[in-house]
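Hey, resending since the last one bounced:
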Amino acid sequence: MKGIKKSLTEEYLYLDFSHQKEGCIFPLHTSVTLFLLSYCDCTVFKVFLVLPGESTVISVLKNVPSEGVEIQIISRQELPPIVQSCCLPAIVERPDNFCRAGLAVVLRHIIQKSYEADPSKKEILELLGFKKTCLKACAEVSQWTRLCELTIPLAVENFLKESFDQPPTIPAAILELEKKLSEPVRVHNDDKLRRQKLKQQKAAGVGPSLAKEKTKSKGHRQETSEEGDSSSASLELKVAFSKLTMHKEPASANREPSHIRKAKASDLPPLDHVFAEGLYFTLADIVLLPCIHHFLVIICRKLSGKLVEFPLLAAWYQRIQEVPRVQTAASQCGIQFLSLPELQTTSSQQPPNLDEATCAEEQNDPSFIGGPRPTMTKLMEKGIEVMFSPHPYPTWTLDWDTLPAAVSPKEGKMSSDRALRKQQQLNNLVYMVTNQAKPGDRIVDFCSGGGHVGIVLAHMLPSCQVILIENKELSLIRAKKRSDELGLSNIWFIQANMEYFTGMFNIGVALHACGVATDMVIEHCLKTRASFVTCPCCYGFIQNTSKFNFPKSEQFKKTLSYKEHMILCRFADQTAVQLPPQRRLIGKQCMFLVDLDRARAAEEHGFSVQVISMEPESCSPKNNMIVGVPI
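The structure tokens again:
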């Protein structure tokens, strides 16, 4: 068929299979992936359902899209070694050294390959959203990705396991999604659309702008909106479904009336959600649909009185059925859509935002004394001073002139000055790692980027297995190209969030892992009892997350509040060469104290840890190394 391309690389898709209940395959990540395959009519992958243990027997397998898709059943022991080190779902390119793991990464790749196979399916590519960023940010740093990819699927699975002998607790993740659907939509052409909506409301004779009625209930807002939409579909629905049908509304030849053009932004009505991320149908809707469907099945069957608590979720569920091909894909995957009553949206008291509550608590902290110097003095009074461990071999360097060209960072797209500084950074990390590595060790280069660290290590340590883990696909593809030029056979490439790498390893390394990514690397190494060599970066991005609270060590917790620790983090970023020497010195001292807290926390887990300054210090403004070895 014209326009159809064949994939040059054979790719295998591995999906977990735990059980099947009422036509739904669990875990839900598998149901979501199969639904997307069906929606995209994608047949470019060989699909494997992976059973726990050694069994490969399934009594009856129902509602699996099978037309054009080759599906095999295997045991976990039959997985390629690279996949055994990752959470499923996972996609592997032959010859089994490039793996994509984790739901969001896998789904985005399926969309890309479906489009490449048939470029006429432009609506498939639209699933990736504005600038192709839908669910691109990793779950460790994006609350939205985490909610869609992890929290909601797991919450629904746990909800389905309940006996319902006692009144159940509605999952907090579902309540959070309902709340998000009530929030105003932000899109790139936000102002233009809101003015169009204001014009539409004025033409329909609607009274004051919705933006001025913030104190009124959400229910009243919706009623008002419905009055304005009585003669035609709402602006949001028109915009959303015109894009789905690839039909653009003709642009108006006339300028907007003066009173519309001059309206203040604060007087413009907010845009309401049509789909999960706003106005447009995206991958987020695909991920949520199987999860929300099975949640609503239980609600309607056993807890029908609770349905009124989710009017926006119910409206989204009904609306998504109107999207082309969704009904077909759903029927192929055993999803029989429910017919829900139209629910009235009512105002409700929102649960307190824990992050906001924490911030308010910090602002009222009576013990807080501002600025870096008072904070540093406070630490000194407790015996905590800036004192770097000595560098074990400050003059050691790789013989870059004798190494193959593809090993050098000069092969990347960077200036000669920057390439020299990168070589100096690598000298420090490679020395620390090679001094610890033994034949047969597994070394993981976390946040590997283009593979500067990992490729050097793989070349220098041929008896070790080196694994590059990176969330950005293009960076990892560039790294693989360099590796292929060198003919390296002891290297793996894994595109995944750090959380989805579950394999054992002996040494973890990370060069300039941003913000809390450094803490995630160290945590991974602590859990695995692996040595680590990390060079932190972007101290100003450090903040409390769902995984970490700062300060981390007991010693620092007893001395500093969170806000005082954040002062150190902010000033630790002030080490650029353009800054005055005195400010750079304070920045360097703050860097040390932040990293000392990390080191002390690792020591509490049975590690010997040093904070060392790279040599020469001019190799990078962020020139600290945290080196840890299990005791």
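Residues 86 and 166 are 37 Å apart (CA to CA).

Sorry for the duplicate.
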